[in-house]
Design brief:
There is one protein chain. The chain is mostly helical. It folds into 2 domains: 2-102; 117-156, no CATH class. It has helices at 6-21, 27-101, 105-113, 120-128, 141-155. It is rod-shaped.
Length: 156
């Protein structure tokens, strides 16, 4: 029965007792007790609700933290890969340049074939500036690509 269930059961029992007794002398204090019991019941429900919400949001926060950590690790891996590719491009270009300046055309062609596909457009654009005869040419393809990107952004 509902009469046996916590604060709500207490309220139901008290209301039944007041109705059955018909005694109005104690009814004022009993009404206050009933109001107190209702307030306690509301407090119990509010406490349970806040505990539920805290658990729910803690779980949500944990999921978002895990996702942020995954994205951070992925970004760090990509940044490392980009750094390694830049080192490869620089090293290959330096080897090409040394061979070119030493007149070793076969070695220069070998290193030029080793350029990454992503690096070739910057190298081709840099070569169009006639870097061996043009003193205004950028010092290398990587710097030429950076200058081109800045000029494109400035125009936009």
């Amino acid at each position: 029965m509902l009469e046996s269930v916590g604060p709500l059961g207490y309220v139901i029992r008290k209301l039944n007792q007041v109705r059955q007794s018909g005694d109005t002398s104690q009814s004022g204090s009993e009404v206050i007790e009933i109001i107190e019991a209702l307030i306690l019941a509301l407090v119990a429900v509010a406490t349970a609700w806040s505990g539920y919400q805290a658990a729910k949001w803690a779980g949500n926060r944990a999921e978002q933290y895990a996702e942020a950590s995954r994205v951070r690790v992925t970004a760090e891996g990509l940044a490392t890969l980009a750094g390694q590719e830049r080192i490869y491009d620089s090293d290959t270009f330096n080897s090409w340049l040394a061979a070119k300046l030493d007149g070793k055309s076969q070695a220069a062609e070998f290193f030029e074939r080793r350029f990454r596909d992503e690096y070739r457009p910057a190298f081709a654009a840099w070569m169009k500036t006639d870097p061996f005869n043009n003193l205004q040419a950028p010092p290398g393809p990587i710097l030429h690509a950076r200058l081109s990107q800045r000029q494109t952004r400035a125009v936009s």
